[in-house]
Structure formats: C-alpha cells, structure tokens
Amino acid sequence: MNRRRSLLAIAHMFAGLALLPLTKEALAVTALKKSKADWKKILPEQSYAVLFEEATERPGSSVLNAEKREGTYVCAACNLPLFKSAQKFESGTGWPSFFDVMPDAIGTHRDFKMILPRTEYHCARCGGHQGHVFEDGPKPTGLRYCNNGVALQFIPANDTLPALRT
Ligand SMILES: [Zn+2]
C-alpha cells in the first residue's frame, strides 16, 4: 500500500509538471538548436564568423549602412525578423544602427571583451550574435543597437519574408 501511494504521488507530480504554463518567451519564439558545424556549412564565411564566433565586421563595410527603403531586417542565420526599417537611424558609426528592436526578437548578456562592460545581444531564436546595445541612442528609447550588417538580411516591404530556417 505504501509503495502504491508513493507511485501515485510521483504520477501526480509528473502530471503537475505537464500542466505548468509555458513562459511568454517560449510561446513567442521557439529556440532553434543547431551546432556551430552545421551553421558553418550553411552560412557565408563572414556571416558565420560574426554570428557564431562573435567577430565584428569592419566599420563602413556593410551595404546595409546606406539602406533606406521600407522593410524588415531578419537574422541572417535563422530568418527571424529582428528590426523594422522604421527603427533604423544613421548613427555615423559605420554599422547599421537601430533605436529599437521587434518584440521578443533578441536576448542579451554582458561581456567584458573591451575592458568596459558592454551588452551583447543575439537572435532570440538561434542565438546568433548580432551586435552590442549602448545607451547613447536617439529618442524615444535612448538606445543604440549597433548591428553587424552580415548578421542581417534586408527584406523590402513588398517582398515576402523568408520562412524561418529549421
Ligand atoms: Zn537567428
């Protein structure tokens, strides 16, 4: 009887776990897990180096600096939409810059590579490194998302967004 009770207790515990509500993040974006080796096979060399080895592209090198059309900037690895053209501004830094990001599109962490702490951000879906966010941007957010162009793909407003990579 004791043994039966404890089995029941365990069964109830698992049933309870299955009913836990999903977090908001989990509902919004389902993580895509791929190995670095897989990404290396799929992506152009420079995009891979930035997205999965945290390299930084040479300032002024991205064609996206001059991109002024209406549209969406998607992650160059998994195609998750990250920025709208209305969130872009000319920062003069030589990197595509945005003052805001689409909801639930990125995750962040602090890094200390440049001695002073910086906030790194990455695609919420595939974890690919995009850039760093600084607090010297324009209104209304005061933020400057300094993004590597090779980590993004621009999709003009009239074109269909690419399917999320699986
Ligand atoms: Zn991604």
Would you mind describing this structure in some detail?
The protein is α+β, with helices and mostly antiparallel strands and 166 residues long. It has a single domain (31-156), classed as Metal Binding Protein, Guanine Nucleotide Exchange Factor, Chain A, CATH 2.170.150. The protein is 23% helix and 27% strand. It contains 4 helices and 9 strands; from the N terminus they run ααααβββββββββ. The protein has helices at 2-18, 24-28, 36-42, 45-53, and strands spanning 71-75, 81-84, 88-89, 97-98, 106-114, 116-123, 129-134, 144-147, 152-156. A 6-stranded antiparallel beta sheet has the order 3-4-8-7-6-5. A 3-stranded antiparallel beta sheet has the order 2-1-9, with no helix packed on it. β1 (71-75) and β2 form a beta hairpin. The radius of gyration is 20 Å and the shape is globular. Mean pLDDT is 88; it is low at 14-27. Zinc ion binds at residues 75, 77-78, 80, 123, 125-126, 128.
